Amino acid sequence: MKRGATSIVGAAESAIGIVPDRSALELMGDAALAALDDAGLSTKDVDGLFAQTPYLWHPSISLGEHLGISPRFTGSTNMGGASFVGFVQHAASAIEAGLCEVALIAYGSNQRSDGGRLVTGSEHLSFEAPYGFLYPATAYALMAQRHMAQYGTTPEQLAEVAVAARRWAQLNPKAMERGPLSVADVLASRMISSPLHKLDCCLVTDGGGAVVMTSTARAKDLEKPAVRVLGAATAHEHRQIHQMPDLTVTPAALSGARAYEMAGLRASDMDMVQIYDSFTINVILSLEDLGFCKKGEGGAFVTGQRIAPGGALPVNTSGGGLSYCHPGMLGIFLLIEAVRQLRGDAGERQVKSAQTALVHGVGGVHSAHCTAILGVAA
Amino acid sequence: MQPLPDVRGSARPYWSAALRGELQLPFCDSCRRAIFYPRDFCPLCGARSVTWRRCSGRGTVYSFSVVHTHPNPAFKQRAPYVVGLVTLEEGARLMTEIVDCPRDAVRVGMAVTVDFRRLSEEVALPVFKPA
């Protein structure tokens, strides 16, 4: 993969939030068509198709049938919520290799209207399921507890992450939760799996999202500014939480380092960060592993609303999974927000003169990690 | 319903030993490390032969969480309970439940020892209590 050789040229959500009358496939299709409209391209231009959703057995194949697309390159690799950032790496590689020219990456889920449960298939984890481990919250709770014991991180610091997300959401008209929120409110919410309260956990919503990629050469013929893929990388080591070697260090350290190397950039070069925030602890762990602060200092880093609007580092400027939307998998929405910001289309929440963004997807229980570095400068 | 493990395959000796009140694990014949979950090869060094041995049953709490809610009624009616990760003296780490200890007394680093909870004719589940 070559730095900047491919670009994201379209990005859009479907209707999000509570959408009771659309199936997962329909939401995925709605988002795909909206992203193609945004790019100024049609389904007939698409020859690379990437999709993932727990609702479909063959996601990219079903999406192809639904939209009338017959791709020459296809992929439905299940990297959990990290899939879509991972597909940026897959699509960039395929486009550069000449295996496809226009790639569509899409997600859809009606998790909220379907009863709120996380659809995870029939996989049975023999060494975890018998213990009443609440999937996936307890895994993240175990990480948080270990981080607290090892580094003195506090429940108040976790809550700071949720409050910052809410403050960004208050600037995003599409965000689902926009009411006032304080650290005390988070700590007063119901305990789910200690030390994580209800408001340390992401929303459960419906929604679809999609992005369109092509070569940066072809992107020059399109109307909207291209958002270049400067680096993209993946890492995974464990699938189950008891197999994670150190609960305070995630494979973001690996995928992040690889993506920075490809981009020739460092954490200090990033104008904003979009991190998968299914739980507040994710943001603290990922900021450390992606080099924005030292290991163990993530709690202090987010204290005093330093990642909120007006803070030192803009993080999850849409309001993230905690306050904007989270239909089971979030990765695609992190990409959409980064594209909007880098095009200067983010309205009230626009990060001024943003040239670079780091997008970090997490799948499973901090299992799959995919990092993309995007930019509008060469 | 309480979920049960699949006792077939390379983990069969683990579950058979648990029924006898023993914690057993495969150890790599090459690098000598304990392997969990049980496999008949070593994922740590790549060697292809292992030997099953009895573990001491002693370990320390690596992390824990008090679970307050669960969609499965079997767990919901028992909540709150303590799910833990325990690092065995032999080095392997497993998920477990911390039992026989007030929930607010569980600590990271606490010494624990194995016990077994009978779930069915085929299954006794390793749990851990304060040492």
Fold and architecture overview:
The complex is a heterodimer of chains A (378) and B (131). In chain A, the strands form two sheets. In chain A, strands 3-2-4-7-1-8-11-10-9 form a nine-stranded mixed β-sheet. Chain A is globular. The model of chain A has no long low-confidence stretch (mean pLDDT 96). The two termini of chain A are 15 Å apart. Chain A has twelve helices and eleven strands. Chain A has helices spanning 24-39, 59-67, 83-96, 137-151, 155-169, 183-188, 216-219, 252-263, 280-289, 298-302, 320-324, 331-343, and strands at 6-13, 48-51, 73-75, 102-109, 191-193, 196-197, 207-215, 227-236, 273-275, 356-363, 368-375. In chain B, the strands form two sheets. Chain B has a five-stranded antiparallel β-sheet. In chain B, strands 1-2 form a two-stranded antiparallel sheet. In chain B, a hairpin with a 4-residue loop joins strand 4 (81-88) and strand 5 (93-98). The A-B interface holds A 117, 124, 126-134, 138, 141-143, 145-146, 149-150, 190-196, 240-243, 247 and B 2-6, 11, 36-37, 62-72, 74-75, 78-79, 81, 83, 85, 93-97, 107-109, 119, 123, 125.
